[in-house]
Amino acid sequence: MATRSTSTKEKIAETVTSILEGEMADDVASFIRALSYRRFSPDTTLEKRVVLHEAVRTYLATGDRQAASLEISERLGDATDIDLASILSDTEVFDTFSAKVRSVIEASFPELVVEGIGAVVGRTTLLHLVEEARRADTSNPFDIAAGKDVTVCFIPGSSSVQNYWETATRSWLERSDSISIYPDRTFLDFLGVVGVTKADWLAAVERNTTMSAAARMRAHLAERTAAWNAVPEWETAGSLDIDDDDLVAAVDGCPFGFTPMIAFTMDAEEVFSLDFAETLEVTGGIVGLHDFTTGSGDPIRFEGTLRFSPGVGDMHLADDQPLGLIATHGFLSSAFVSTVKRLSLRPTPDFQTTAHLTP
Hints:
Largest sheet: 7 strands, antiparallel
Oligomer: single chain
Radius of gyration: 30 Å
Strand content: 5-15%
Structural class: alpha+beta
Low-confidence stretches: 346-359
Number of strands: 7
């Protein structure tokens, strides 16, 4: 008896599919065109925002578009199918199709009119519509990025270390300030990227160093002078449009050192288009003098234009860490608003930070 019941239900399902693909095919096609279903359409749901961020994180870390695409499609797979089925089942057209299919079966295949036929017709019709909607879908995973901005940060040299804090500045003293900070690769590249020359930096430090700060460095002043004398002048790659004295004050506000970073908003589609062989020109954003170890620091808004050439692994979502830039310092999203241009050529010199050099 059970075998006969199963066989009848299978026959009903086959008949429903035949009707939908035959005499009702034009109606189904018209409905699917009007539906214009896009599995990877951008929207404001939390789920897609989380998925987009995961994909951005994957791409910035690996430079692998295929991996980022797979991240999106796998995370939105079953969930979007369920959502689609829910959308379709709530439409009047679905009810109309189910009723029409059932009426055809009752008129032409009376032997299939058994208990439970309504459920089989409805389920089979719904699955058919889901499949047709998916077949007509021309969207691709990166479409969820359309019209979306993400807040990212460039941390020079972070691709060559395991943890962000390994790119932190260092100091001759236990408590760092502008006069005691080492002129190592991390700090020199930071000054180059933010548009401050060696001469301008040293002059600003001299103007702002207090007698007590100089006294704390007394034992290291000769060593500091020798270290800075050994540093060649560098070309700058932009300008913060911030007074040098304010930058000195910001460095003084980071007694435990800081990880240099440039944080800014960027169109998510542009992120996925980066080839990491070009220069970014960023106007407006946050210069993040941020300590990942303690959560301290003194990030400041800039309105100038900076140019830098990030490699794979040098850019990150701005609040990835437990002591992230956004959460720790309480910035509004407007603080990161930027204009970003992708330039085909890297500037000269190219500010790479692949090592920490001691003075």
